[in-house]
């Protein structure tokens, strides 16, 4: 009996060791799989930094001219002052005495140098009574979130091709609306009083492309034959539109 008992204990110990080994290996396999998945996810989500201007052409010889970076050069943080992070005057209404009846006062990295690399900017929008328009445009580098302080605005954006779906809303004081990055959008004052709104944008330099100005007011002008065919217009109409911009 003692020999049988000893044999049984040895068998149980061997079985226990085998199960422990399998458990350990399963744990190791899981850990390896987890690490590989994490690395794969890291590689899949890796990308170049977003551009902070229209383009940044590479140069091989820095002695041939000025060198630019993606954004702006940074000063020594020890030399930063409060004025690097400050901009006054957004309480002052913008002058809307123009053809569009609107005025946008931007606060980007050009106005606040401390915004460099922070990925955010701001703008005040003023609209003349009924008809003040911030015309169809796009920000190639930023999503915009707008809040109305005064007046009534009809706003909207158009989704990308092929749907080209128009999404609009009438906004009143306190209302907020979002314009997704890169999509054509507009704001139009449909009230009988001045309208005021503020926008936050997800870039230090969101960029601005007014559609009409870009198409009909490019420098040098786009060949009228191109625009006539693209818009299905008579060439004389295209030439007239180009003269307006």
UniProtKB/TrEMBL annotation:
Compartments where found: Secreted, Extracellular space, Apoplast
Keywords from the named record: Apoplast, Disulfide bond, Glycoprotein, Manganese, Metal-binding, Secreted, Signal
GO MF assignments: manganese ion binding
Any one GO cellular component localisation term in the record: apoplast
InterPro entries from the UniProt entry: Cupin_1, Germin, Germin_Mn-BS, RmlC-like_jellyroll, RmlC_Cupin_sf
SMART domains: Cupin_1 (SM00835)
Lineage: Eukaryota, Viridiplantae, Streptophyta, Embryophyta, Tracheophyta
Family: Belongs to the germin family.
Stated name of the protein: Germin-like protein
Disulfide bonds: 56-74
Domain Cupin type-1: 88-239
Residues that hold oxalate according to the record: 134, 139, 144
Annotated function: May play a role in plant defense. Probably has no oxalate oxidase activity even if the active site is conserved.
Positions that bind Mn(2+): 137, 139, 144, 185
Taxonomic superkingdom: Eukaryota
């Amino acid at each position: 009996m003692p020999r049988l008992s000893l044999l049984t204990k040895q068998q149980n110990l061997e079985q226990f060791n085998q199960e422990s080994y399998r458990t350990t290996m399963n744990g190791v396999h899981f850990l390896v799989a987890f690490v590989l998945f994490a690395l794969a996810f890291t590689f899949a989500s890796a990308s170049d930094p977003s551009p902070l201007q229209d383009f940044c052409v590479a140069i091989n010889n820095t002695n041939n001219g000025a060198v630019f970076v993606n954004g702006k050069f940074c000063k020594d943080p020890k030399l930063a002052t409060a004025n690097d992070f400050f901009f006054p005057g957004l309480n002052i209404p913008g002058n809307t005495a123009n053809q569009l009846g609107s005025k946008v006062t931007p606060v980007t990295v050009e106005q606040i140098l401390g915004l460099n690399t922070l990925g955010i900017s701001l703008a005040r929008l003023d609209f003349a009574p009924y008809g003040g328009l911030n015309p169809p445009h796009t920000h190639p580098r930023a999503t915009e979130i707008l809040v109305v302080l005064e007046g009534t605005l009809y706003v909207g954006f158009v989704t990308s091709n092929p749907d080209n779906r128009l999404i609009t809303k009438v906004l009143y004081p306190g209302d907020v609306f979002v314009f997704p990055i890169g999509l054509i959008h507009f704001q139009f004052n449909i009230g009988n009083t001045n309208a005021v709104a503020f926008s936050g944008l997800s870039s230090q330099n969101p960029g601005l492309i007014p559609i009409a100005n870009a198409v009909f007011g490019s420098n040098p002008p786009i060949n009228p034959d191109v625009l006539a065919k693209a818009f299905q217009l008579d060439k004389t109409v295209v030439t007239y539109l180009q003269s307006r911009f």
